[in-house]
Amino acid sequence: MWKFCSRTAGGMAKTCGLVRPCHLVKPVSATRVAGRYLSHQRGLPCLPLPPLQQTCERYITALEPIVEADELMHTKELLEDFTKTGGLGERLQEGLEKRAQRTENWLSEWWVRVAYLEYRMPVVVHSSPGLVLPRMDFRDKQGQISFAAKLIAGVLDFKTMIDNETLPVEFLGGKPLCMNQYYEVLSSCRIPGVKKDSVVNHAKSSSPPKHISVVHNFQFFQLDVYHHDGTPLTADQLCVQLEKICSASSESDAEPVGILTTQHRDRWGKAYLRLISDKTNRESVVAVQRSIFTLCLDGATSQCSDDVYRSSAAVQMLHGGGSGGNSGNRWFDKTLQFIVGEDGTCGANYEHAPAEGPPIVALIDHVVEYTRKSEAIQAVVVPLPEPQKLQFNITAEMKEDIEEAKVSMNMLAQDLDMKVMMFGHFGKNVPKAHRMSPDAFIQMALQLAYYRMYRRCCATYESASLRMYRLGRTDTIRSASTASTSFVKAFDDPSKQNPEKMDLLEKAVKAHRSYTNMAISGQAIDRHLLGLKMQALEEKLSVPAIFTDAAYAKALHYQLSTSQVPSKTDCVMCFGPVVSNGYGVCYNPMNDHINFAVSSFNACTETDAGRLAQAVEDALLDMRTLLDQTPRAKL
What we know:
alpha+beta, Chloramphenicol Acetyltransferase, 2 domains, eight-stranded mixed beta sheet, six-stranded mixed beta sheet, 19 helices, 41% helix, disordered N terminus
């Protein structure tokens, strides 16, 4: 199972997707056009379409913990009318069945469009996740450049596997997974539009790019990373080139053109047209868009104590800290940005319309491992071309756009509350020892923490990968269940004894595992419901009443948007809440500790990221005490 984070776009949840490391098999070589890659993809099953009645029944079950009895009764009446013989539901289901027969994946095109490209909030905080790496052991410009050079070499090493199609095919439960997303993360970029964006992947062009884009002191450069014979530059050669870039951009008085990418998508779409109306600007923008990835070389951030360092680093990866920080030292439309700070703060930010989290995390794990290898120093014997500085002509109107972007970015940065916590008391080893899914155990701790704070349960989002199917993206695991509600209500009830609480915990964990298995098998409810709604729009029919129902709005108002992001590297991913009065919670369970990143908005007086993080720590410790005090007979 894979999971990640969610975003809400026009009532739809947007996900970035990742949860459990897959078993790897020997590399599968292929040629892209006619080799094993395509035969592997064609060998995958198509995404199934669940039965209409099944989805409607499971929808009612999912609503039970989060809506009132009268609302539930009203929804049942709407569903009875929707599913009656010869009714609208049957008509839409038949339309979906025909779509499934004529497409590789009946969902994927709609999903990318609705959840990403038509989503108009800024990608910063609202959509693009950040990833925080452990702090690196350098604190100066030379250390920064040396590490960044190794990082570039590591990405190019991974890119060789993508280009040669020797990436290991991943398996889950003995079943091969779709590998398509690995071919979407490099040399791709989101392109702003006035009402809808698009994504372009230059790796598939007749002349794939051979350069990366580097930004330092708000100034952009094109850096060729391959020699004429196709071999990549060595880390030592890359060091020389990065030194040239830093020397050529030592002054920081440049206009931060990159901050335009933090804007609301409609505003950025209009500003983008103004920007590229100038030929020089257009050529510079295209150079960034075509680049393999973007490397952001940041200045040192303000000193802070160790206990808040990771939270500060998360802010840098997520949005850069505002216009007075590094928010202008980015191009947030780029699918993949690696961020290397002069003070050892490192990580990444990614725009995930082209792909979910697994390829990003796999690439980052590979790169971190690569940077730890010691390399023999190689003399730079061949002359290297100068990196090309990308020029921008800034008109008075463009200057206004930049100033407007600074204001809105600063408001967003000030509004975001981010708390990164390293839970060091235990890791996935404890639930495993009790034969419980670590992910389900952590999810129940989140349910308990939220209930203790608010005395109610809420719609909770966790994404499940559909990569067992061709071009599969994600579906929703709804962690708030009838079983989880019974558990959290009983946990602090003094009239309940430990054996009863233990039974309820086990039932809640099993219910979560059951929903997870249902979701990764293509039998969850949320994407099917979306498909029915989209089919109605496709047929130019009125939106069915079940989608204008108050219960449906509650079901999609995810006050807990959660993701498990496992990684070989001791890192943590972070993202913003998906609703104004909600939380974003991302976690990386290691063997003996768990990294958490919790976010909320300061504008909401009801939410507090630090308070929820503390409540999660307390819940995990109390649940472990319950396990220790209630021994179960060994089966």
